Hints:
The chain has 90 residues and is α/β, with parallel strands linked by helices.
Amino acid sequence: MKIVTICGAGIGSSGILKVNAERVLRSLDIDAIVVAADLASVRDAAADAQVILTSAEFVDAIGATFADVIVVTNYFDTAELTSKLRAALG
């Protein structure tokens, strides 16, 4: 399984979200590759992804995708990530 985290530049916010998503996935015992990407490379990065994690501001820019797009409000809130990933992957 592949999960892509998206932010504007692909460095800060998506990196934080990547690290926290990996923590949550380990706690849920789910094996996945998590990749941080910027908005400009989302089509390539998410072409084979099952899930995209991002903020509400980037959803429209992601465009058409087969991945489940999950909007995360607080990138540091592992309880939010746990709930949303469990719902999407469960």
